[in-house]
């Protein structure tokens, strides 16, 4: 089963993809958060034969929703309706910061958000494959 991981942001949205066995997560691309975002992601899901979508649930260390979570919830519902695929939340903490740390915080990396999406997806896959 192939999964798509999403790190949702106000300006940019990172995407990651799993291998066909659903064991590994790889950064895919970063999209601008535009009015066409849902359709752009649906097209990727069709092309890559995605069967489930995993989106980062933005919560703080106490488990309370971060301010962006309401927007993420609306996006999750729209994406589920548009794609016809199950969209699952995976709690995320500091994934963008961790993605930057893994390469070198001083460098600018155009795939930072996609790397964060890969960390979210990998967390989900690890929990569900054990």
Describe the structure.
The structure is a single chain. This protein has 4 helices and 5 strands. The two termini are 15 Å apart. The chain has helices spanning 37-48, 69-83, 95-103, 112-128, and strands spanning 3-7, 12-18, 25-32, 52-58, 87-92. The model has no long low-confidence stretch (mean pLDDT 88). With 130 residues, the protein is an alpha/beta fold. Helices cover 41% and strands 25% of the residues. The chain is globular and about 35 Å long.
Give the averaged pLDDT, no decimals.
88
Q: Overall 3D geometry?
A: globular
Estimated share of beta-strand residues: 25-35%
- Portion in helices: 40-55%
H/E topology pattern: EEEHEHEHH
SS class: alpha/beta
**Main beta sheet strand tally, sense and closure:** 5 strands, mixed
Which consecutive residue ranges, at least 5 long each, have pLDDT under 50?
none
Number of strands: 5
Query: Could you name the CATH homologous superfamily?
Result: YqgF/RNase H-like domain
CATH structural fold name: Nucleotidyltransferase, domain 5
CATH architecture: 2-Layer Sandwich
Radius of gyration equals 14 Å
Distance between the termini: 15 Å
Q: How many separate domains make up the residues?
A: 1
Tell me the name of the CATH class. Alpha Beta
Describe the strand arrangement of the main beta sheet, using strand numbers. 3-2-1-4-5
């Amino acid at each position: 089963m192939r999964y798509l991981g999403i790190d949702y942001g106000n300006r940019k949205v990172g995407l990651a993809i799993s291998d066909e066995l659903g064991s590994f997560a790889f950064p895919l691309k970063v999209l601008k958060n535009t009015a066409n975002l849902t359709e752009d992601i649906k097209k990727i899901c069709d092309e890559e034969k995605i069967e489930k979508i995993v989106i980062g649930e933005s919560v703080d260390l106490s488990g309370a929703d971060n301010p962006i979570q309401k927007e993420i919830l609306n996006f999750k519902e729209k994406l589920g309706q548009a794609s016809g695929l199950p969209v699952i939340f995976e709690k995320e903490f500091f994934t963008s910061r961790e993605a930057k740390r893994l390469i070198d915080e001083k460098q600018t990396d155009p795939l930072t958000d996609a790397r964060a999406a890969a960390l979210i997806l990998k967390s989900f896959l690890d929990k569900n494959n054990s």
